[in-house]
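Chains adopt folds. We examine one example:
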Amino acid sequence: MEATDLASAGRLPKSYVVRTELERILAELAEGDPVPSERDLAVRFAVARETVRQALRDLLVEGRIRRQGRGTVVSRPKLVQPLSLRSYTQNALSYGLLPGRILVGWDDVPADADTARDLEVPVGTPVMHLERVLLADGERIGLESTFLRLDRFGVLRDTYDPTTSLYAAMAALGAVLGHATERIETVLASPREAALLECTTALPLLLLHRRSIDQHGHPVERVRSLYRGDRIAFEAMLTRDTLPRS
């Protein structure tokens, strides 16, 4: 797009027009290809570098591009995680990605009111707390905090490798998931969370709260998961019972 074309865009913000043109450029590039510099784009579109910078920031947040060294390159597509009882490991493998986890902490904590309610134990009862960073091909994309009843899953201390699938380990103990309730919100990362996820505190994150129930109707887990909004998306399959009604 030439400078005259930008002028003809009327009252549309220049950063929006520049971003639209950048999306056309990205569509012609492959993953890992370099994105033109701010200076080159500013000259090409006859706009201030701050206008280009704003458009690039928007694309960074969306995960369309990423920083590499002193430049910017095209990102891989987001990992799409279905809202289902399918495990993170299964889903990552289905996309040809290598799943992984980094153990942040594994200890016993007293159950607060929400945890006690979800796990059906008295407030203050010691419960297992497992916190891990989720990886996809070595890239940090999520931070998962899981609470489990000690009387049911305390044996995992001696048998479980926290860098592997927790659901597989629970299934080996006879805990097969029957259903779950999940709520999704958008939040910004705290300084600690940003450090663990290797992102900035300005990056929108997807916050998931999950309560899982086994095949016999007993509570299995309470989970709080944070996912980088630039690296992962969620989708759900709608059935007749869940379709919106006018």
About this structure: The chain has two domains: 3-74, 79-235.
